[in-house]
Design brief:
Elements: E1 4-9, H1 12-20, E2 29-32, E3 44-47, H2 49-52, H3 62-68, E4 73-75, H4 79-94, E5 100-104, E6 107-111, H5 119-137, E7 141-146, H6 149-159, E8 164-166, H7 172-177, H8 189-197, H9 203-207, H10 211-218, H11 221-229, E9 245-256, H12 259-280, E10 284-293, E11 298-309, H13 312-326, E12 333-341
Parallel strand pairs: 2-4, 7-8
Antiparallel strand pairs: 1-6, 1-7, 2-3, 5-6, 9-12, 10-11, 10-12
The protein binds a DNA duplex (18 and 18 nucleotides) through residues 32-33, 41-45, 58-65, 67, 77, 103-107, 185-191, 219-221, 241, 243-251, 286, 288, 296, 298-304, 335, 337, 339.
DNA sequence: TCTGGGGTCCTAGGACCC
DNA sequence: TCTGGGGTCCTAGGACCC
């Protein structure tokens, strides 16, 4: 029997800011793009619970957040700082089990099957971890406890904020039954709509269906949806993951079709990509340019070079060529992105990176 | 509401090689 | 003269997650 934890930091970016600026605690704090007095083009990255009281939430346009609470504390995203705090969290959590998987900057799975003998013990163990994060690092978090990653994740969602939630495997189906299908991890907007149109409104509706019917409409992911709805997930807690790509993208303050502006931006973005490539000591073989037009349609263009390289001019020249090829019309561009992939180390072999 | 940025994984057709 | 099957790489796009 496996016992898995998901530890998820609460409103992480805003919590980091509260920790270093105690005077803002208790006030609505919004971390995201510059609202520019309500005209800014970006979204809310994270906000604390005081801000949520005004209806503000992650991914909301920053201009809307500004309209809802103009005198909230708006802070820019200081990713380097959050990464440092994240390392503090991760190294503390790792002392509780060597079987861990970092999912993102503020989230991590722990397999504690070897550390405890029952769910009661698991709860105590989770509480200990949570208390240490609270006391030593002064950061709030929530923990989900269950038999697999999916259930731990869903339990953690139910625990938020600042809570712990245990879901035993025998309780799983009941726990999930009444939730809307969109709550299921792995089901996004598109799949949610499709599920609803097929008559599946709650996760319980999926539990009762014939998986063959799901396979008919969702191909190979049909079985995954069925398994998730039933709380079944065999995936392992994996410590290592490979870096597959490095990318940067930027949105213009105003949409543009001007050649010089676009080339300038592509150079700028390429340089940022190059800096990280150098830092991580990678070679790349493929360059991809992403273009988002004013109407939000997106196009990708990519080209693979004959040999792996780590040359900045190769990125810039390929990026500009790809853009030129894609732009026979004069549509205005909202956002540009540059990505390098097919990464390798000097000798050409891929390398494993741990968190 | 007027919509960011950094990722991963998957699919699918076509090229190309054996 | 008509026709295989497997494998891998490339390119484009889409869904999803945080």
């Amino acid at each position: 029997m496996r016992i898995i934890l998901l530890i998820d930091m609460d409103y992480f970016f805003a919590a980091c800011e509260e920790r270093r600026k105690p005077e803002i605690k208790g006030k609505p704090v919004i971390v995201g793009f510059d609202p520019k007095g309500g005209t800014g083009r970006g979204v809310v990255s994270t906000c604390n619970y005081e801000a949520r009281k005004f209806g503000i939430h992650s991914a909301m346009p920053i201009s809307s957040a500004y309209r809802l609470k103009p005198d909230a504390i708006f802070l820019p995203i200081d990713y380097k700082f959050y990464e440092k705090v994240s390392e503090e969290v991760m190294s503390l959590v790792k002392t509780f089990s060597s079987k861990y998987e970092q999912v993102s900057v503020d989230e991590m799975y722990l397999d504690i099957s070897d550390k405890v003998n029952s769910y009661d013990e698991a709860l105590l163990y989770a509480k200990k971890i949570k208390d240490e994060i609270n006391n030593k690092l002064k950061l709030p978090c929530s923990v989900g406890v269950s038999a697999n990653k999916l259930l731990a994740k869903m339990a953690c969602e139910a625990a938020k904020p600042n809570g712990i939630r245990l879901v035993k495997p025998e309780e799983a189906k009941t726990f999930l039954k009444n939730m809307p299908v969109g709550k299921l991890h792995g089901v996004g907007k598109v799949t949610e709509e499709k599920l609803k149109s097929l008559g599946y409104n709650t996760i319980g509706d999926i539990q009762k269906t014939d998986p063959e019917r799901l396979a008919l409409h969702f191909r190979s992911s049909g079985q995954d949806i069925y398994n998730s709805a039933n709380g079944v997930d065999e995936s392992e807690v994996l410590e290592y993951s490979e870096v597959k790509s490095i990318s940067r993208e930027r949105t213009f303050d105003e949409d543009t079709a001007e050649k010089t502006k676009i080339e300038e931006k592509l150079k700028e973005i390429s340089k940022e990509v190059f800096e990280e490539l150098k830092e991580k000591d990678f070679y790349f073989k493929t360059v991809t340019v992403k273009i988002r037009y004013s109407d939000f349609t997106e196009h990708l263009k990519s080209r693979s070079l004959l040999h792996p390289t780590n040359n900045l001019d190769q990125i810039i020249n390929t990026a500009i060529k790809l853009w030129e090829q894609s732009t026979e019309d004069k549509r205005k561009i909202r956002k540009l992105g540059v990505r390098v992939s097919t990464l390798s180390k000097r000798k050409g072999q891929k390398t494993i990176f741990g968190p």
